[in-house]
Amino acid sequence: MKIRTAVSLAFVMLAPLGTIRAQISNPLKFTLFGGAALPVGDTGDALNTGYTVGGAVDFRVPLSPFGVRGELTYSGFDAKDVSGDLKDVGVNANLVYWLQNPTPAKPYIAGGPSWSHQTGTVSVSGQDISESANAWGFNLGGGLQFGLGDLGTRLDVRYRRISKDGGSFSVIPITFGVTF
Fold first, then answer.
1. 20 is a domain residue
2. pTM score, two decimals?
């Protein structure tokens, strides 16, 4: 009787350790994502809706709702009124806060500085003219991490603003990603 009680008590006490171990066993997550990039403000007056693709690395502090995320993005846009386009290579360094909720879907908010290298090309009289620039800005938004079968996924919406000479580049990327 004492052995059975001791074994039962051991299972009851050790069961939560499996949950804790699952939460801290892999603090690094990688994500590949893609979606639409919606220009807003003055940027929306000059550019059509574009696309964005990228990758991210998350480090979540074990047993904490806080983490950090580094992202590398590539976006492309066509000009509205002229024959031309804009390509944007961006890097985001974000702080992430995962909101606590009882469901399997985990909402989060994220934000931080953004760096951007942009190249604009315009065709004038059959000749392409290109100009490149680097600039800093910020991004702020949120998303939802959830399971899709055995796959980890994420839906994310951000506001990204890059300061440029006398103006800004503002876009709202809406992306879907696969996390592993």
1. no
2. 0.83
Run of H or E residues at 17: helix 2-24
Where b means 16+ CB within 10 Å and e means fewer, 9-44 reads eeeeeeeeeeeeeeeeeeeebebebebebbbeeebe
Q: How many domains does the chain have?
A: 1
- pLDDT, one tens digit per residue, over 112-138 is 999 999 999 999 888 999 999 999 999
The C-alpha angle with vertex 102 and arms to 99 and 104, in degrees rounded to 5, equals 85
User: Using the 8-state DSSP alphabet, how is residue 99 labeled?
Assistant: P
Q: How far apart are CA 165 and CA 154, in angstroms?
A: 34
- Which of the pair, 39 or 11, is modelled with greater confidence? 39
Q: What is the pLDDT of residues 67-107, one digit of tens each?
A: 999 999 999 999 999 999 999 999 999 999 999 988 889 99
Phi, psi of 80 (to 5 degrees): -80, -50
CATH of the domain at 167: 2.40.160.20
- Domain containing 136 equals 26-179
